Every structure is written in structure tokens, then in C-alpha cells.
Amino acid sequence: MTVGGVVFLLVVAGFVFLIISGYNKLVGLRQRSDEAWSDIDVQLKRRTDLVPNLVETVKGYAAHERTTLDAVTRARGAAVAAQTPETRAQAENALTGALRQLFALAEAYPDLKANTNFVQLQGSLGEIEDAIQNSRRYYNAVVRDLNTTVQAFPSNVIASFFQFHPRGYFELDSPQDRRVPRVAFGS
């Protein structure tokens, strides 16, 4: 074999190595983003599972506040039905707004504010909201890494060939929604 043939084989081997390592990096990032989304999904499910208990507790004290209770129930249903990060984010934004209205409603009922079950559910919701925020932060970091790799040269060529696409971030719509919906119940 000639020197030119050896150089050609080394160039081809280097090119194949570049493609394989780029592909493997993209697969790893896609897997991490799937795992991170799964973590968010678990936390969101915990929150949607808590909502019926909150609604039932409030219903016992404020049954005539049907509009707010129905809004929370509808928002929960939409959140459960959403499939993609983008639609899930929109549904979760609506649920956060509905929960904010529910807690504002609770302010008008001193007996409800003093209810141990309601206070405990509110505390659980705060913990879940913190977990959602942490999971969302991790997911968005992984998606940022995936999107950068999908869009940067030379990995964008590999990504295009193997049908890797940028993913959407899981974000809240407005600065008001960025605050955790908490209501302080004093004694």
C-alpha cells in the first residue's frame, strides 16, 4: 500500500470517527432531554393529582364559588391531556393561574384558611412547585445543549442527516406566572 493510500484511509477513518462520535453525542443529548422531560412530567402529575383534593377542600367551604372551582378543574384536565412540552407549558400556565384564583378565593373564608387539610395541601403544593422549577431548569439546560449541538457546525450536518431536531424549552409565559402561587395563612 502506498503512502497516499494510507493517508486516504486515515482521512476516511477520521471522518467516520467524527460521524460516529457526533451521532453518539446527539443520541446521548436526546436521551438526557427525554429523561429530563420525564422528571418534569412526574412533578406535574404530582401537582395535578393534588388539585382534586384542593378543590374538594375548598368546595366544602365555598361551594357557591362554582366558577373558580370549575376553572381549576378544567385547567387540570387540559394539563393532564397535554402531550408536548409546548402544549404542556401552556396548560400548566393556565393551571397555575386557576390555582392562584383558588388561593385568592380562600382568603375570603377564614375557616378554610384555618383548615389543617387545606394548609397541608398548600404546603405540599409549594414543595411540588419547587420541584417543578428545579426539573424545568434541568430540562431547559439539557435542551439548550441539544439545540446548540444540533445547530452548530459540523454536528448540524450529522443532525440533519439523522433527523435530529431542536426541542422546545419548557417556559412560563409571563413574569407574573414565574412566581410560585403561595398564599400565607397567618394564625
CATH class, named Mainly Alpha
Shape: rod-shaped
What's the CATH architecture name?
Up-down Bundle
Provide the gyration radius in Å: 24 Å
Topology, number of strands: 0
Oligomeric organization of the protein chains = single chain
Low-confidence stretches: 183-187
What portion of residues belong to β-strands?
under 5%
SS-derived structural category? mainly alpha
The domain count comes to: 1
Order of helices and strands: HHHHHH
Write out the CATH superfamily name. Answer: LemA-like domain
CATH topology: de novo design (two linked rop proteins)
Question: What is the averaged pLDDT score?
Answer: 88
Structure described in brief:
With 187 residues, this protein is mainly alpha-helical.
Topology, pairings included?
Layout: H1 3-61, H2 66-81, H3 85-106, H4 110-114, H5 116-151, H6 155-161
Helix pairs in contact: 1-2, 1-3, 1-5, 2-3
Description of the molecule:
With 187 residues, the chain is mostly helical. It has a single domain (27-178), classed as LemA-like domain (de novo design (two linked rop proteins), Up-down Bundle), CATH 1.20.1440. The chain is 78% helix and 0% strand. It has helices at residues 3-61, 66-81, 85-106, 110-114, 116-151, 155-161.
What descriptors fit this protein?
de novo design (two linked rop proteins); single chain; 6 helices; 187 residues; disordered C terminus; mainly alpha
